[in-house]
Amino acid sequence: MKHTILKMTTLASMAAAAVSCAPKQADFHYLIDEFADLKIMRYKVPGWEELSLGQKEYIYHLSEAAKYGRDIIWDQNCKWNLPVRHTLENILENYKGDRNCAEFAQFETYAKRVFFSNGIHHHYSEDKFFPECPREYFASLMAAVGEENADLLEIIYNPDLLSQRKSTNASGDIVAESAVNFYEGVTRAEVEKFYADMVDPADKTPISYGLNSRLVKGPDGIIREEVYKVGGLYGPAIEKICEQLEMAAAVAENDAQKQYIASLVEYYRTGDLRLWDKYNIEWLSDTLGTVDFVNGFVEDYNDPLGRKATWEALVNFKDMEASRRTEIISANAQWFEDNSPVDQRFKKKEVKGVSAKVINAATLAGDCYPATPIGINLPNADWIRREHGSKSVTIANITAAYSKAAEESPRSMLSEFAWSEEEIALQKKYGSLTDDLHTDLHECLGHGSGQLLPGTSPNALGEFSSTLEETRADLFGLYYIADPKLVELGILPDMEAYKAQYASYIRNGIFTQFTRVELGRPNTEAHMQNRKLIADWCYEKGLKDNVIEKKVRDGKTYFVVNDYEALRGLFGDLLAEIQRIKSEGDYKAGKALVEKYAVNIDPELHKEVRERYAALNLKPYGGFVNPTIVPVTKGGKVVDYRIDYTQGYMEQMLEYGHKYATL
Ligand code: ZN
């Protein structure tokens, strides 16, 4: 599973990243390009210098293994994607005509979009998109580089051909009508029968049948699987992946890593899905290594039948600074429980904190590139998760890059919705740190705190339980982020920092988060409900003391926190009440809170926030270029690996097109 949705406070705060990833080069920019509905960013790799030479070498080969799979995802998304890409590359590199005219710019935008989507369909909506330049112009570009190809032109321009990567036509055959390249000549019914015949319903450790193959009906009418493996479909790419994985294994950090890489390579050589399960179980057992990776046919979102997996890779290593933070929080879990503002009867006598694992990406590839998740929870097989658990990580440097890039943009949510320069400065100074910290407190302590009274059913809150549970965890974090204990523990620099989180939380909870809700619709998502519940409840309860003030300037509404200490008191009061509701299973009180504060959006405010957001014209989707990992040699020997951040978007796309061409 991928976590792709940025925490809304992160987006709203547009905050500065932690000091540890401050750019070294003065000219480093996070935001490097914007076109269509997309923005391209760079990410920093903090902690690289602290790695040993061996770890850097390990990451280098894992990254090469990641990049060698690039052509696989292109072919999986649609069988015409590689021919289209080769044509685009040829024109971009060899066209000698006028490159300054409007048509060429339109052609370039189309090429950038195709590179972004790993194909001719939008990476998110999955609809085919089109060049803005006329078809005749595109044909002339092709002719100029010796690529006259009427079929290809038809694929690119005809709206009726391959119109959706994954068909949403419920009345048609979603297998036959999808442009994805997982099936050839088969109907949905044939696919379903093919796999139903394979599955053993009594198997307690079921194989993920069909995960790593294309299903094809031959001229003889027989349906067969073309398996992705060395010597099979995508063999040349998989061979290069294996070669690099074996070079990585030679310099791995420990034997567990060597073992699971050996299993992964064996799986790639045989295509045997039992080995894929074995690899995943072994991968879960390595908790000591600093470096980790994903490399394989993993996610099945792109298959209309949810069975076949796209190829993806991500190389990463542990974020030492963030991990230190969550370890300290977890180690002090009992102190937080004992000192919380809830009734003694509802507190756990013995509480254990959870340490969240935070990583930094070093290379993104396949289906994780250029658009990437901000968190990952793997493996996907239910029985492995049940029996062996799963790894859940958040990718800190990617989240930080989103925030930094937004801040570099001349238009930002923060400058639009913050009341004063002072509030903006506070946010830029502490926003990213306190946002991460609030998430840590929510995840490591909030959900695990408190206990039910004897006899209270865990399901007593019914349909309101997830909203109330998220409310409880958020409040626990909000209450404690303003506690001097955090400064004492060395997690927060001073007693000013929390104010950034309070201001942005209120702004977001009361109104800026509703940029994502259609006008006239209620607020239905659990996390969004919880934020509204907290912000609106505190606004109302603080009215008499003017704790949060609604101000209007030039016809625009702002919500400003006047009294931070009083606001903390309100967070504590609401936490005590929500904990009581949960511990006693008070369904009626829970329902009343959600219905009064969490659901109905003020229509005037909603309209205003949507209009102000639209006027900012922000790009809804983002992706990244990878930093280049450069071997540094001395006397023919590699003595170090350096990270280089200078490569541009198109430059990287064209380089990868040559260097990692395998299919
Ligand atoms: Zn939660």
Structure explained in plain terms:
The structure is a single chain. The chain has 663 residues and is an alpha+beta fold. It has a domain at 3-46 and 319-624. Helices cover 48% and strands 14% of the residues. It contains 26 helices and 16 strands. It has a six-stranded mixed β-sheet with strand order 1-10-11-9-8-7. Strands 2-3-14 form a three-stranded mixed β-sheet. A three-stranded mixed β-sheet has the order 4-5-6, with no helix packed on it. β12 and β13 (556-561) form a beta hairpin. α19 (465-481) crosses α22 (526-541). The chain is globular and about 75 Å long. It starts with a strand and ends with a helix. The model is unreliable at 8-25 (pLDDT under 50). The structure holds zinc ion (ZN). Zinc ion is lined by residues 442, 447, 470, 473.
Helix/strand structural class: alpha+beta
Rg computed from alpha carbons, rounded to a whole number of angstroms: 26 Å
Largest sheet: 6 strands, mixed
> How many strand segments?
16
Low-pLDDT windows of residues:
8-25
**Span of the ends, CA to CA:** 28 Å
- Report strand %: 5-15%
Bound molecules: zinc ion
User: Strand order across the biggest sheet?
Assistant: 1-10-11-9-8-7
Mean pLDDT: 93
Number of helices: 26
Overall spatial form:
globular
- Share of helical residues: 40-55%
